Amino acid sequence: MQKDYKMKNLTMSKSNNTLLVISSCLPMLLAFNSLANTGTDHIEQGWFIGANLGQSTANIDSDSIWRNLENSGFAVNEINEDTRHLGYKLYTGYTFSRYFALEGGYFDLGNMGFNATTSPVSDYTGNTGLKGWNLDLVGRLPLSANWSVLARVGVTQNKSKTRFSSNGLINTTANNQQSSYTKHKYGLGVQYAISDAFVLRLEAERYRMDDLIGNIGDMDLYSLGLVYRFGGSKTHYVPTAAPDPAPTTRQPAPAIPPALVTTEPAVLVLEDVHFNFDTAELNANTKVILRRHVATLKANPQARIRIAGYTSASGSEAYNQALSERRAESIKTFLVSEGINANRFKTIGFGERNPAQYEAKPSVLRSDAAKANMRGLFEIIVE
Predict the structure, then answer these.
(1) CA pair distance 45, 47, nearest whole angstrom
(2) In this predicted structure, what is the pLDDT of residue 364?
(3) pLDDT of residue 36
(4) What is the pLDDT at residue 212?
(5) Backbone phi, psi, residue 366, to 5°
(6) Which stretches make up the OmpA-like domain (predicted)?
C-alpha cells in the first residue's frame, strides 16, 4: 500500500567548519606578504572582474526527517547526509571610492541532499541545488597599503531545483519542484592587493533560499578569489622640488612674489611646514610660515591648492596614514580661517610614504630625519 509523505521543517544553517576552511586558505594569502611594497589597496575608482572558488555548506535537519519517517510507519536505520559541495561565483563591478563598490555576477553553490535507510526499504532520498544572479553593495575598510576588510549585502535571483525519490512506498511527486525567486545575501571577507592590478580575496557569504519543501533556509559559501582591476585611478604624488631640511636647520624661505603674470598653467611649491611629534596641531613657527603663504594665495585667487600631509616612520602604517590626513586638514582649516575659500583646497595624506629624509632607525623618535618627515607640503596650480 502506497503511503503519502511530506517532509517538514528541513532547513539549512551555517556550517561549523568555517574556521577549518578559513585556516586552510589563509596561508595562501600570507604567502604574498613579501610583495607588500608592490601593490596598493587605495584604488579610488575603476572597473574590475573576478572569480571565487570554494566550498558551499549546509546543515540538514536529520532529526526532523527521522521523526517524520517514523510517524509515517517506517523504522529508520540511518540517514546519510551530503552537506558539502564545490561552489563558485563569477563577477564584475565598479569601484566608486576607496570605501564602496557595486558588484554583480553569477553563482553556483552545487547540490545538497540526504539518503534515508529504512525498514521496510523505501530508498528515500532528497537533494536541492542553488544557483543564480546577484547584485551586491560592497563596503571596504583599508587597514594598510595592501590589506582591507570587506562587508557586503545584496539581492539574489535564485534558481533552485528540488528532487525526491523512493521505490514507490513514499509519494514524492508533490515535493519535486523547480523555482525562481528573489532573496538576499550578505558576507564578510578580507582582501590583499598583490599589485595595482591583482587582488586576492578570502570571503564567507550566506545565501538565503527556499529549501527542499519551500521553507526559508541558508547555504553558505567559503571561497578564495582573484580580482583583476582595470587601470583604476588613484592619487599619486611626486614632489616637484626637494624638501627643506628639518625645522632646526631650515633657512628662511625666499620671498615669493605676491602676484604672477602668466599665460600658461604654473606650479608653485611653497615652503613646507612641520609638526611636533605625534600631533596635528600647528605650532607658532608653522603659523608664521602659513600666514606668509596666505598673502600669495589671496594675490592669486585663480590658484588651486593641494595640501599633502606626511609623518615619520615610527608607529603603525595605519596610524601614520590617519595622522598625515589630520595634518593636511589642520593646514587647510587654518588657511580657511585666514580668509582662503575652502573650495580651492584638496587634501591628501601619505603617511610615512615619500619621506623627505631616510630614517635609518625609526625607533629614534626625534631624530633629524624624523623631524624632517613630520611635515605638510603643498603646491599651487595657477592658470
Answers:
(1) 7
(2) 53
(3) 38
(4) 52
(5) -125, 35
(6) 262-383
- Would you state the pLDDT for residue 14? 39
Handedness of CA 166, 169, 175, 178 (dihedral sign): positive
What whole-number distance in Å separates Cα of residue 138 and Cα of residue 189? 10
Beta-ladder partners of 374? none
In sequence order, the β-bridge partners of residue 191 are 148, 201
Contact 309, 349 (CB under 8 A): yes
Report H helices in the chain: 18-30, 62-71, 284-299, 317-337, 368-373
Going along the chain from its start, the domains and CATH numbers come out as: 3-233 (2.40.160.20), 266-382 (3.30.1330.60)
Rounded to the nearest integer, the mean pLDDT of the chain is 74
Long-range contact pairs involving 193-196 (C-beta distance under 8 Å, separation at least 24): 193/39, 193/40, 193/41, 193/145, 193/146, 193/147, 193/148, 194/32, 194/35, 194/38, 194/39, 195/35, 195/38, 195/39, 196/39, 196/40, 196/43, 196/229, 196/232, 196/234
Where on the phi/psi map is residue 199: left (φ > 0), alpha (ψ -120 to 50), or beta?
Answer: beta
CA distance 229 to 226: 10
Evaluate whether 283 touches 310 at the Cβ level (below 8 Å). Answer: no
Q: Indicate whether 214 pLDDT > 90.
A: no
What does the pLDDT average to over 92-116? Answer: 92
Work out the angle between the directed axes of helices 317-337 and 284-299 (0-180°, nearest 10): 60
**Would the CA dihedral through 323, 275, 352, 296 be positive or negative?**
positive
Residue that wins the pLDDT comparison between 197 and 175 = 197
- Residue pLDDT, tens place only, 254-298: 444 444 444 444 555 556 667 776 677 888 887 888 888 888 888
Residue 11 has pLDDT above 70, yes or no: no
